[in-house]
Automatic annotation (TrEMBL):
It comes from Maioricimonas rarisocia. One of its GO terms (molecular function) is zinc ion binding. The active site is at residue 460. Acts as a processive, ATP-dependent zinc metallopeptidase for both cytoplasmic and membrane proteins. Plays a role in the quality control of integral membrane proteins. It comes from the Bacteria. CDD domains: RecA-like_FtsH. This is ATP-dependent zinc metalloprotease FtsH. Residues 1-25 are annotated as: Disordered. One of its GO terms (biological process) is protein catabolic process. It is a multi-pass membrane protein.
Length: 653
């Protein structure tokens, strides 16, 4: 199991060497200087042309006002420009608009006015009489000017199109679609805040496996001298949140080489062939930066078994997978490029991807042990002020089954709770609240009626009492009837050991505990409620695995009957039939019912024998809503000793 320190959680800044596919690496092509100069003169000409238009010269006045001033002899000269005239006053007259608005501006020495279409030679005759200067100017643009003005939008669009094509040009000749088929892999370079193996806790086995990869990347000649070949590919397998991505980044950080990261889903696009092109570009970039590490996260998105489903062998996903297989085969022995992939579904990967020569080394990353959880908590608590009553050993003991992501969330929730409470440090109570929230869900605001509270209390009391009395199951940690998550009540069990296997007796006892709430409801209220829906679902799944997967039924025998809905997204259920007969399926169903009915009968029997204890627990839950392990001990006495640490052996006859 792994963990990432707060320092290492800071985002590493992508570098910008050749081949990087970050936003910063977009081509910075520009227009040539010559075209910029041409554009400058064109814009300057257009601005001059429109600024010298008649309507922009002097103050615009009404034509009638102009005639009045002409009759008074106040016009010095006039210039006719098409349908407009411009001129200059002898003496600047008063603005006629001031009669209505005293704040109207004064007229300028120059003026312009629109000439009516019905105008005759009266104005010209009067101007001649007054000896005013007269000039005529042709404002109609030339043919070339008109063509240029009307074609300017088209030229702008054409220039923009050429500019975009130049920016998106691919060095391999892909044209304007170059950026579309480039690999979106993000590149990270070693920095002050890089991840190393010191930031990873609880994965000693994975560290040892990847240490050779680090040594090869640091000194390839050391291995090549004796003819050794480092694995081309390393597949990290494990449940979600166990730190596979962090482990890959720590490997790159230890080796001090460029690290390329991409998700398997980023290869898949609507157009067939795009994913394969991105694979080629990604591997080419990694080889140019060798030695380097190429990390493909969630490789099952693109590396699933070929030929499954309705897409045949010609869909985009399979073409992309074929290209990945080809590129991994194309590595030269001297190319120091390591491909690390991560998945939590190794069972659905194509066998050709897993064979030696591609992913030679398979590293399993499981949930951390108790010592690993302590190390992970220490890493995540580096910048969290802890109170003196916080014991990370006890917290690790109470978080069996937590992944690295779960532990990180636990520390964060505890810090959030301490902040809400206004504390200066995170104490053990904050960790208890955070663990309850993660395991049982957040508290809900529903207010139950008295009957619902009592029925829920007996339901949870049935679970708790059976787990208290049966020595094969985990210990009871807390019981509550406060609605949390999607449940009206929760009985929380915590294991006292690290468990990697499970026996038949323990499974039967767990079935009894699962059905204990339902049995208590029937015994006390003579009816079943819908509260047992999740209990029945989990009990049925467990019984089916016992019968069909693990061969724990004497009637069925040591045979595995796996259901076809195990991998429905592969599409295999469309052409694969069930591999056992209807009669066998009927026997399996009968055995499942026998296991469940037997567990229900045993639960009813034990609860009947200890009815007084059942009532005490239910009454305590109604009064206090929450009962811990110490409170249960005061109510009904100590729990049965857990005997799963030492199991009796059956001697050979």
């Amino acid at each position: 199991m792994s963990s990432e320190s707060p320092e290492s959680q800071e985002a590493q800044k992508p570098s910008t060497p050749p081949g990087t596919r970050n936003a910063e690496d977009a081509p910075r092509g520009g227009l040539p200087i010559f075209w910029l100069i041409v554009l400058f003169f064109v814009v300057s000409y257009l601005l001059y042309y429109f600024q010298t238009a008649p309507e922009h010269q002097g103050t615009e006045v009404e034509y009638g006002f102009f005639l009045e001033q002409l009759e008074e002899g106040n016009v010095e000269h006039v210039t006719f420009q098409g349908s407009r005239l411009t001129g200059k006053w002898e003496n600047v007259p008063e603005n006629p608009a001031k009669e209505k608005d005293a704040a109207a501006p004064d007229l300028e020495p120059e003026f312009n006015a629109e000439i009516p279409l019905v105008e005759d030679r009266t104005v010209l005759t009067e101007l001649v009489k007054q000896n005013s200067r007269i000039r005529a100017v042709n404002r109609s643009p030339g043919l070339l000017t008109e063509v240029f003005i009307y074609s300017l939008p088209l030229l702008v669009m054409l220039g923009l199109f050429i500019f975009l094509m130049r920016r998106s040009a691919d060095p391999m000749g892909s044209g304007m679609f170059g950026s579309f088929i480039r690999s979106p892999a993000k590149r990270f370079r070693p920095s002050e805040h890089r991840n190393t193996f010191d930031d990873v806790a609880g994965m000693e086995h994975a560290k040892r496996e990847l240490q050779e990869v680090v040594e090869f990347l640091k000194d390839p000649a050391k291995f090549q001298r004796l003819g050794a070949q480092i694995p081309k590919g390393v597949l990290l397998m494990g449940p979600p949140g166990t730190g596979k991505t962090l482990m890959a980044r720590a490997t790159a950080g230890e080796a001090g080489v460029p690290f390329f990261s991409i998700s398997g889903s980023e290869f898949i696009q609507m157009f067939v062939g795009v994913g394969a092109s991105r694979v080629r570009d990604m591997f080419r970039t990694a080889k140019e930066s060798a030695p380097s590490i190429l990390f493909i996260d969630e490789i099952d998105a693109v590396g699933r078994v070929r030929g499954a489903g309705v897409g045949g062998g010609h869909d985009e996903r399979e073409q992309t997978l074929n290209q990945i297989l080809s590129e991994m085969d194309g590595f030269q022995q001297t190319e120091a490029v390591i491909v690390i992939a991560a998945t939590n579904r190794p069972d659905v990967l194509d066998p050709a991807l897993l064979r030696p020569g591609r992913f030679d080394r398979h590293v399993t990353v499981e949930r951390p042990s108790r010592e690993g959880r302590v190390g992970i908590l220490k890493v995540h608590c580096r910048k969290v002020p802890l109170s003196d009553n916080v014991n990370l050993e006890e917290i690790a003991a109470g978080t069996t089954g937590f992944s690295g992501a779960d532990l990180k969330n636990l520390v964060n929730e505890a810090a959030l709770n301490a902040t809400r409470e206004g504390k200066d440090a995170v104490d053990s109570e904050d960790f208890d609240v955070a663990r309850d929230k993660i395991l049982m869900g957040a508290k809900r605001e529903e207010i139950l009626s008295e009957h619902e509270r009592e029925m829920t209390a007996y339901h949870e009391a049935g679970h708790a009492l059976l787990a208290w009395l049966l020595p094969e199951v985990d210990s009871v940690f807390k019981v509550t009837i406060i609605p949390r998550g999607r449940a009206l009540g929760v009985t929380q069990l915590l294991p006292e050991e690290e468990r990697y296997s499970i026996g038949e007796k323990r499974l039967h006892s767990e079935l009894v505990v699962m059905l204990g709430g339902r049995a208590a409801e029937k015994m006390v209220f003579d009816e079943y409620s819908a509260n047992a829906e999740d209990d029945l679902k989990r009990a049925t799944q467990t019984a089916r695995k016992m019968v069909g997967y693990w061969g724990m039924s004497e009637v069925i025998g040591p045979v595995a009957f796996r259901d076809m809905e195990e991998h429905p997204f592969l599409g295999k259920e469309m052409h694969e039939q069930r591999k056992y007969s209807e009669e066998t399926a009927h026997v399996i169903d009968q055995e499942i019912q026998r296991f469940l009915n037997g567990a229900h009968e045993k639960a009813t029997q034990i609860l009947t024998e200890h009815r007084e204890r059942l009532d005490q627990i239910a009454k305590g839950l109604v009064e206090k809503e929450v009962l811990g392990k110490d409170e249960l001990t005061e109510l009904i006495g100590p729990a049965a000793p857990r005997d799963y640490l030492v199991r009796p052996r059956k001697e050979a006859s």
